[in-house]
């Protein structure tokens, strides 16, 4: 038996996705690939296409690449929560064209590509009044592998080697000075990289002396074992995260967003910088807590932790509100105060009391149907805006979607009944059109709640009808109109 090596090319594609302007991590479009082993060349082909109106401008698209976990990105330049560390991701910026990237001898396993448009302008735009611009992104992965082809020959054995990998879990770590204590955390399933890895260390003050220092390194792929020669936690495979414990700092915390898919190692060793002989027989018990959480601190009081899915891969992100921003909604540089939130909520909700004027006029003129529609709109508009507020000034008497639907329906029907009343139609015809218009509004809102023509279409029809009736009523009886 002998072996022959051959180069084999393979291509992997995923369906294109429509890009969005960036305001939080959920706006980034994530693509998940798996690079086969023995890959010697990885070729990314990035394709961007534009659809929609011809007036759409060229925009800059940012594309991120990362091995082992989704890229940790920060296009808005916000701050991360305390004790958070992350590995930088490779990124490129491109326009509406095709771009290719080559990576030689890539690490086999999970690779992630994320793309998004520039940061959102946060402007409220009515659908139908602005050009509809669609930017679609599709990455293709082409790999070149070295495949060993075994050729069997008669009467020649074919050896095979099987490796056994034991698994274990330590609940306590005894730290000594002669050698590092190592704890392994298995995150190599591919399903643990979509959250955050949190590590908390604590040592009792009574068991550690003033001249003693506990050095800690957190690494992926291989443990750090060279505490006697270096304290930077860097190995041949990974630039680790250093931590330390002492009498002045008995607690240490580390948060790693989107940890790479691999075996992670926690290495600890007792170090005596001034008098090494004190550490020869010393040992310290360090309480260690490791956990995987979807979001940091559940995104805090001004954020919502949302689970996202892409081709069966689950990952989480924080959607912030009330001006708070950042990876864990902990950046208050643009946050609203509680007083500002309450003032904004009161001004927006109490402005609906202006409906009392048309309600009073309608009741005075015995237009009870119109008055009922205005009262309905005032009620649901007030409580919809009270429920739509970010932060603490929130009051929801019904489901948010129900309040929004009732508010939009009442607004459209209010305009409809007002124009019909101004058209001076006969009572029977007016109420028939009122009912038909309400049904049309209800149907159109169910199809597309944010479309401008949901309101404009029926209202334009009512305006034409009103003008027609006014022209007919202004003609003398002797003239046929």
TrEMBL record:
**Is Kinase a UniProt keyword of this protein?**
no
Residue span(s) of domain EGF-like: 318-329
Residue ranges spanning the membrane: these are 451-471
Where it mainly occurs, coarsely classed, is membrane
Pfam families in the record: DUF3522 (PF12036)
Write out the annotated subcellular location.
Cell membrane
User: What is this entry's stated membrane topology?
Assistant: Multi-pass membrane protein
Q: What's in the GO CC field? A: plasma membrane
State the superkingdom: Eukaryota
What keywords are assigned to this protein? Cell membrane, Membrane, Transmembrane, Transmembrane helix
The family classification in the record reads: Belongs to the TMEM8 family.
User: What protein name does the entry list?
Assistant: EGF-like domain-containing protein
The organism of origin for this protein:
Molossus molossus (Pallas' mastiff bat)
Upper lineage: Eukaryota, Metazoa, Chordata, Craniata, Vertebrata
């Amino acid at each position: 038996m002998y072996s022959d090596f051959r180069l084999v090319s393979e291509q992997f594609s995923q369906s294109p996705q429509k890009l969005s302007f960036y305001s939080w991590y959920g706006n980034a479009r994530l693509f998940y690939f798996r690079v086969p082993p023995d890959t010697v060349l990885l070729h990314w082909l990035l394709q961007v296409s534009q659809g929609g109106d011809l007036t759409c401008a060229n925009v800059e698209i940012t594309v991120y690449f990362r091995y082992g976990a989704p890229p940790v990105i920060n296009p808005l330049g916000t701050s991360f929560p305390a004790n958070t560390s992350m590995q930088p991701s490779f990124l490129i910026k491109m326009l509406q064209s095709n771009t290719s990237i080559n990576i030689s001898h890539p690490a086999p396993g999970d690779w992630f590509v994320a793309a998004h448009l520039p940061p959102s302008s946060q402007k409220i735009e009515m659908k139908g009044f602005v050009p509809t611009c669609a930017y679609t992104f599709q990455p293709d992965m082409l790999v070149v592998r070295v495949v060993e082809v075994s050729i069997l020959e008669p009467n020649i054995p074919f050896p095979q080697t099987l490796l056994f990998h034991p698994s274990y879990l330590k609940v306590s770590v005894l730290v000594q000075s002669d050698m590092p204590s190592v704890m392994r955390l298995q995150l190599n399933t591919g399903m643990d990289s979509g959250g955050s890895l949190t590590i908390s260390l604590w040592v009792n003050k009574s068991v550690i002396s003033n001249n003693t220092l506990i050095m800690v390194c957190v690494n992926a792929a291989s443990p750090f074992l060279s505490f006697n020669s270096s304290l930077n936690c860097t190995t041949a495979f990974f630039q680790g995260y250093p931590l330390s414990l002492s009498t002045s700092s008995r607690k240490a915390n580390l948060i790693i967003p989107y940890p790479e898919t691999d075996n992670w190692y926690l290495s600890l060793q007792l170090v005596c910088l001034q008098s090494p002989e004190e550490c020869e027989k010393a040992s310290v018990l360090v309480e260690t807590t490791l956990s995987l959480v979807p979001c940091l601190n559940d995104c805090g009081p001004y954020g919502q932790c949302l689970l996202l899915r892409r081709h069966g891969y689950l990952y989480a992100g924080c959607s912030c509100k009330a001006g708070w921003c950042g990876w864990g909604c902990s950046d208050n540089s643009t946050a609203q105060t509680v007083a500002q939130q309450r003032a904004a909520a009161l001004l927006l909700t109490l402005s609906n009391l202006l409906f009392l004027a048309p309600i009073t006029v309608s009741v005075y003129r015995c237009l009870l149907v119109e008055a009922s529609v205005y009262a309905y709109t005032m009620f649901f508009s007030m409580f919809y805006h009270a429920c739509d507020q970010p932060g603490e000034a929130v009051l929801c008497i019904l489901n948010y979607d129900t309040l929004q639907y009732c508010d939009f329906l009442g607004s459209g029907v209010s305009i409809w009944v007002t124009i019909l009343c101004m058209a001076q139609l006969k009572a029977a015809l007016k109420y028939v059109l009122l009912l038909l218009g309400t049904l049309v509004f209800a149907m159109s809102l169910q199809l597309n709640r944010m479309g401008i023509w949901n309101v404009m279409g029926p209202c334009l029809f009512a305006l034409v009808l009103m003008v027609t009736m006014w022209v007919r009523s202004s003609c003398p009886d002797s003239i046929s109109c």
